[in-house]
Amino acid sequence: MEPRDLNRMFDALAPTPEQEQAGLDRLLRTERKVRPMKKLKKLTVIGIAAALMVISCAAAVVTGLDQRLIDYFGGGKQVEELLLPGAMSVDITAEDNGATLHATQVLRDRYSIAVLADFTVPEGTVLDVERFAGFSLDDEGILFLNSDGVPVNDNIADSYVFTCGWRLLEDGKPEDNHLSMLFYLTIPEGLRENLDVTALRVSTMNMAFINNGKVEWPYTGNWPMVVPLPQSYQGYTQQFDQRVGELDGSAIRLKEVYLSPITLKVTLEREEEIHASLSPEEREQQWTRWAFALREEQSDGVSRAVLTTRDGCEIPLEFRDGSADGVNTNQYNYVLRLTQATDVEELQGGILTLRVGGGSVDIPLDNLVPAE
User: Using CA atoms in the order 341, 346, 349, 350, what is the torsion angle rounded to 10 degrees?
Assistant: First the structure.
């Protein structure tokens, strides 16, 4: 099965009864899978290039993080110090239908991008945060742009997919005309260092609310933004070739760990392929177990990945996304978020515990080196 077939399969998976409400809530906010556009109109590219020229003057090295970003990544003065190397201040505004979307800060590492923004509608309109479900994207979806404003999505990976969505942030005013938001993007195959990626285009459209289980569109419009990306950030890797478990008769080996203050990426590899001789139903079941090998299962609540500092402190993790490798389809990349931003120096000498297929293996993190 090709990676793109696998992604199509997951798009079609029906949620369990326990996941039904959570799945509905994530429909537009946090779990949208996006694939690259193969073509882009010439006029659009020209417009993007012009926008890049404008925003280059509006971007600056950040001297202090917004408190909302600090709180989202765990809070505390150390969090600000950890995130500053990968942060940038921006001043980008999109207006339509009387509403304004204003981006002020962007944060990134190799596998994650976060954009802080405020959405404001005319006075007198109340935006009910309890019913907020997210925004839709236009047909071009998410575009990564080089320094000439040309999309480079297809140069990242053959099976390139990612998860993105807007998350509400607490601002102390739940019933006014303003929303504090964070656009969070996860790229399981990562943005390589040698790839010219200087900006991210996000076209936010049509706010959605959930009302009695149904999607409503209380505010329509199109608020496109071209957001410059920080070109420096922290990240460390450690290479492995260690057996960590067994899944459906195949030994599973750990190949790589990537760590930044906010992201853990784990690459696992099957020794045996999922056989084509299996029935379609059996293949689909095995692919599902493989893709969710490091996701906490609701049935037992057991964490499949546990990260511990060298001083014995466990760092809470949130599973974000996963994707089959575009070159070696026996490998799978799993991305998790550190909900408490942590200095990688504290993780040097720590332990990563992986529980794959019922087993449990402690992996010493004793040779983390700066990512190239």
Answer: -40
Q: Is the pLDDT confidence value at 339 over 80?
A: yes
3-state secondary structure of 170: coil
Q: Are 186 and 200 in contact, with CB atoms under 8 Å apart?
A: no
Closest CA to 32 of 170, 211, 181, 185: 185
Helix or strand (DSSP H, E) at 287: helix 280-291
The model's pLDDT over 54-100, given as tens digits with 9 standing for 90+, comes to 444 445 556 689 999 999 999 988 999 999 999 999 999 999 999 99
Q: How far apart are the first and last CA of the chain?
A: 31
Q: Can you tell me which residue has the tokens 């057991």? A: 302
Inter-axis angle of helices 3-12 and 280-291, to 10 degrees? 90
Q: What is the strand order of the sheet 214-228 is part of? A: 132-145, 199-211, 214-228
3-state helix, strand, coil in the chain (%, to 5): 20, 40, 40
User: Is the CB of residue 90 less than 8 Å from the CB of residue 59?
Assistant: yes
Q: CB of 82 within 8 A of CB of 261?
A: yes
Q: Taking the CA atoms of the chain, what radius of gyration do you get in angstroms? A: 21
